[in-house]
């Protein structure tokens, strides 16, 4: 792709300050992915950043569509090369946002949405204060547990790790620009749409 002269030599910080970057975060199982999927269906003009992860694919997940599935040494090499806008270890696996794709989309004027966990969201907030951050909360902790279990995708050990971490993640909700409770799905979706397209 051709790089516009205005951007040649621009830093990540400068490029991100020109466009709109939105971070959707919240504990595992709260419904971030489901909300994101619906947002993309309804607003195909949004750009969803596909992350890299060392987690194994779940049934039905497609490499390059849900995630770029890589092994730990590949991931660590990408970190060393500065290929990630942010990255974190979550529930024994690495997750990271590929920098180049996000910057390209921002340059082309797209609204870019990252769906990431707490530590990565904090990194984005620190490094790119212009980004808009939305924290999704569950109506109750019990409902969060029911959703993770109901999804039927994680081992008992992985569920325990995710729930354990969720307690601390929920405490951090106030660090972010906006908090939305995903109780009734349609209501939460409309609240996000109202923020993104205000
Ligand atoms: N408002 C809602 N009411 C009831 N169930 C919901 C609601 N929103 C999402 N769910 C369900 O909760 C489960 C977890 O949702 P989802 O996988 O989107 O969570 P997540 O936050 O993306 O999790 P992770 O961070 O682990 O990827 C799914 O089965 C989804 O259908
Ligand atoms: N910091 C980052 N977190 C990410 C990224 N991509 C996804 N995630 C988050 O990881 C957890 C677990 O995801 P799962 O698919 O294994 O259930 C979840 O909170 C995702 O939002 C990323 O690039 N960076």
Automatic annotation (TrEMBL):
CDD domains, alphabetized: GMPK
Catalyzed reactions: GMP + ATP = GDP + ADP
Physiological role: Essential for recycling GMP and indirectly, cGMP.
Family, per entry: Belongs to the guanylate kinase family.
Keyword annotations: ATP-binding, Cytoplasm, Kinase, Nucleotide-binding, Transferase
Protein name (record): Guanylate kinase
EC primary class: transferase
